[in-house]
């Protein structure tokens, strides 16, 4: 069981890993845009972010939860917009 | 591709027999660590070979396989989506819904899932090679083969689009479409119909397994970074 705050921490930790890996300076904030035209991440960065989040959650909980879930595509608003929206979405997935 | 002294890791689906078994043995003899999977057990014995019995029509079993790869291997350099099934030749009007679902799960859904999970591992190292097995059926469009042909046409389309999505991650994706190779899969097909189709190729006889590994050798080379989104037919199709 992970709280939303803990999930935000995981996402920010993953973004920090990507910054270190790519020598980039993506802002570590809940408002950081993750996907779409205003995003600081390219496609490689986005895939690495998702992979890193999945691995960090697996490490903490022992469960592998693929973020590419059916619900991500059925929601009216994309859960990948920002750190905040992604954390809310992952919390839903974990607590199912 | 690799850290010094570390053997590259290859995942091949459908290694209990036919082309998959040949490729597993071939790449074990060529310095790879090979992870193979199939529904049944596999007789390959090699310290660099890991076999996992799974049903690739189950997404949960595919995810478990990748969980093992992340934990035990921590990387993946090459994925060969080889496993496929071909139902008895059957006209569309005779196709049961369950059969359509089953064939699509194994021939299309599984390669997509394997690719999705492989890309996550490959992306970390900004390097990867994905080979999808295609078929000359997509060129010949033989009556009675609609289901199998449509799954392989899907693989061609997925390959071409996916290649554009992952090229900046250092990953290439290609289709290798063999001519007829003598395997359990080809034996299940009406032999007269098969020979009739082979007559349409420049080379109208069965292909050899070495033709397949020869092309894969080329596609997975580090230097082949510009060869992606291609559908390569063997046998002069």
Topology (SSEs and partners):
The complex is a heterodimer of chains A (96) and B (237).
Chain A: H1 4-22, H2 43-61, H3 70-74, H4 83-94
Helix pairs in contact in A: 1-2, 1-4
Chain B: E1 9-13, H1 18-28, E2 33-38, E3 49-53, H2 59-72, E4 78-81, H3 97-125, E5 128-133, H4 137-140, H5 146-166, E6 171-177, H6 184-187, H7 191-198, H8 209-219, E7 231-233
Parallel strand pairs in B: 1-2, 1-4, 2-3, 4-5, 5-6, 6-7
Helix pairs in contact in B: 2-3, 3-5
Overview of this structure, please?
- The complex is a heterodimer of chains A (96) and B (237).
- Chain A is an all-alpha fold and 96 residues long.
- Chain B is an alpha/beta fold.
- Chain B has a seven-stranded parallel sheet, sandwiched between helices.
- The longest helix of chain B has 29 residues.
- Chain B is globular and about 50 Å long.
- Chains A and B meet through α2 of A and α2 and α3 of B.
Largest sheet of chain A: none
Inertia-based shape of chain A: globular
What is the structural class of chain B?
alpha/beta
Estimate the global geometry of chain B from the Cα principal axes: globular
Please write the string of helix (H) and strand (E) elements of chain B. Answer: EHEEHEHEHHEHHHE
How large is the radius of gyration of chain B? 17 Å
Low-confidence stretches of chain B: none
What is the CA-atom radius of gyration of chain A, in angstroms?
Answer: 12 Å
Poorly predicted regions of chain A are none
How many helices of chain B?
A: 8
Name the assembly state.
heterodimer
Helix content of chain B: 40-55%
Kindly state the mean pLDDT of chain A as a whole number?
A: 88
Beta-strand portion of chain A reads under 5%
Label the structural class of chain A: mainly alpha
Quickly count the helices of chain A: 4
List keywords for this structure.
heterodimer; A: 96 residues; mainly alpha; B: 237 residues; alpha/beta; 8 helices; globular
């Amino acid at each position: 069981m992970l709280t939303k705050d803990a999930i935000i921490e995981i996402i920010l930790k993953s973004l920090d890993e990507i910054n270190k890996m790519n020598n980039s300076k993506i802002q570590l904030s809940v408002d950081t845009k993750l996907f779409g035209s205003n995003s600081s991440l390219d496609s490689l960065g986005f895939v690495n972010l998702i992979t890193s989040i999945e691995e960090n959650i697996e490490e903490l909980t022992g469960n592998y939860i693929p973020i590419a879930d059916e619900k991500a595509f059925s929601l009216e608003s994309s859960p990948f917009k920002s750190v905040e929206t992604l954390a809310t979405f992952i919390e839903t997935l974990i607590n199912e | 591709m690799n850290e010094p002294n570390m053997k590259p890791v290859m995942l091949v689906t459908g290694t209990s027999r036919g082309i998959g078994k040949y490729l597993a043995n071939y790449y074990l003899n060529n310095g790879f660590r090979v992870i193979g999977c199939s529904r049944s057990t596999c007789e390959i014995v090699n310290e660099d070979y890991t076999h996992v019995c799974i049903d690739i029509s189950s997404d949960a079993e595919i995810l478990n396989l990748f969980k093992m790869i992340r934990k035990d291997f921590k990387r993946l350099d090459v994925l060969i989506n080889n496993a496929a099934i071909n139902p008895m030749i059957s006209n569309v009007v005779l196709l049961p819904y369950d059969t359509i679902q089953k064939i699509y799960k194994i021939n299309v859904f599984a390669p997509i899932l394997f690719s999705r999970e492989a890309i996550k591992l490959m992306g970390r190292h900004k390097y990867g090679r994905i080979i999808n097995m295609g078929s000359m059926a997509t060129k010949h469009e033989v009556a009675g083969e609609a289901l199998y042909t449509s799954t392989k046409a899907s693989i061609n389309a997925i390959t071409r689009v996916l290649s554009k999505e992952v090229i900046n991650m250092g990953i290439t994706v290609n289709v290798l479409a063999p001519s007829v190779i003598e395997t359990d899969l080809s034996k299940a097909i009406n032999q007269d119909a098969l020979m009739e189709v082979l007559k349409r190729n420049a080379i109208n006889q069965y292909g050899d397994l070495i033709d397949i590994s020869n092309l894969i050798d080329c596609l997975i080379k580090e230097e082949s970074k510009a060869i992606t989104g291609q559908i390569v037919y063997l046998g002069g199709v």
